Amino acid sequence: MAALEQVFVLFLLIVVGYVIKKLKIITNDMNRDISNLVLYVTLPAFIITAMNFSFSPDVLIKSGKLVIISFCIYAFIISLSYMFCKILNLKNKTRDIFQYAMVFSNVGYMGYPVTKAVFGDLGVFYAAIYNLPFNILVWTFGIFLMTRLKRRENNHFVKGSKINLKLFINPGFVAVCIGFTLFLFSIKLPTPIFSTLRMLGGVTTPLSMLFIGSILADVKFSEIISDIKVYLLCMIRLLILPLLVLVILKILGFNDYLVVIPTIITAMPVAANAAIMASKYENDYKLASKAIFLSTMFSIITIPFIVMLIR
């Protein structure tokens, strides 16, 4: 019930974002500003303060295991994405978007707030460690998927699709590196700095939920409910994949955060950047928007269900 209440709070914040966008209290320009504010300011502060623990060998060992588990799970899900697309007979841009949506979940705008709400700061610490491979794969395999059709049509790389190492140096990645360094050397931030970062990080969850609600307000509901393939995608993304991860990790003998974090992150809806990436690389951004909308809406029900299974 506690988990359900916490996720319901997040749902109400999404509703507020939806309503204020419909009432035109905020605009698309404001959406972009909120997104940048969360990505570049509040989320890094949120991660750094959540990782400001004293060094613990047990936490360090679990962190190393989580990184290995994360890479293995992403490899597993990537393999499954090819299989599901073949079973569903998906082609061209539809296949690109579906694979991207299956592999990449909303680890930033939903993953961290949910982890914080249910498991506290230590949960955020482990989630930040677990998400390190995401930052690598989204700019490698993610770009590969979004540009696959164009490369095949033009028989060369799409302009701007080459992998740039600078892409890995993003605010979230830098914040994890800073936070983990503070943890390794048991460095306690001065109270004024910690308090400032704590206050900034505190607005990450409400701003993220308002942002998601405002995005959903831009999608025409009538265009979504008629696309049965998106429903199948949501079932795979929100239920089948996290349940597979949960069962496999349990069978392998893992427990505690080594099961909780991978399962929760896998249970998140489609990554919010799916539509942005699709638009940038001339893929089907409308289908990506539908997937984000429906998976986020259904996750309000599925996330508490998954949390209750693992707690």
Walk me through what this model shows.
- Helix content is 77%, strand content 0%.
- It contains 15 helices and no strands.
- The chain has helices at residues 2-22, 28-50, 57-87, 92-103, 107-130, 132-137, 141-154, 171-184, 191-202, 204-216, 221-224, 228-251, 257-266, 274-280, 285-310.
- Helix 1 crosses helix 10 (204-216), helix 2 packs parallel to helix 8 and helix 4 (92-103) packs antiparallel against helix 7 (141-154).
- The mean pLDDT is 86.
Short description:
The protein has 311 residues and is mainly alpha-helical. It is built from 15 helices and no strands.
Which tags fit this structure?
single chain; 311 residues; mainly alpha
Which spans have pLDDT < 50 for at least 5 consecutive residues?
A: none
Encode the helix/strand succession as letters.
HHHHHHHHHHHHHHH
Number of helices: 15
Shape: globular
Q: Got a strand count?
A: 0
**Intertermini distance:** 11 Å
Q: Layout of helices and strands, plus pairs?
A:
Elements: H1 2-22, H2 28-50, H3 57-87, H4 92-103, H5 107-130, H6 132-137, H7 141-154, H8 171-184, H9 191-202, H10 204-216, H11 221-224, H12 228-251, H13 257-266, H14 274-280, H15 285-310
Helix pairs in contact: 1-5, 1-10, 1-15, 2-5, 2-8, 2-9, 2-10, 3-4, 3-13, 4-7, 4-12, 4-15, 5-10, 5-13, 12-13, 12-15, 13-15, 14-15
